[in-house]
User: Fold this.
Amino acid sequence: MEYVKTEAKHAKTAYSALTVSGLSFVSAVLGVFFMPFILSPIAMIISHLSKGRLKTRHFAAQAAIVVAIIAFIINGCMIALGVYKFKTDPEIRNRYNTAMQEMYGMTLDEYFQTLQDQFSVTLPETNVQ
Assistant:
């Protein structure tokens, strides 16, 4: 009788991990950049803890680990693609400059120059004109 209760408790924890990893995946696909970096490790930890003293991990816990890893990778790729496009695409760079000019009164290039002057750092040059 105790084993059945323990098994059910571990299954609930495994399904909780699957739910958290699903939220992480959905937020990665929707482009919420910080959520998968928080939720994916939480889902992995919960799925690892759901094993308890059992010999094998529940299938939902295994699925949670896989989904969390996929969400983490998707999120990292989306961020890397955004940075790459920002650095190489002049149209996107001009959009950022226009938005910065409207919001803060200075372009992004002027802001970077201010940072270089204020903190004595050298930022890498971009090949965007």
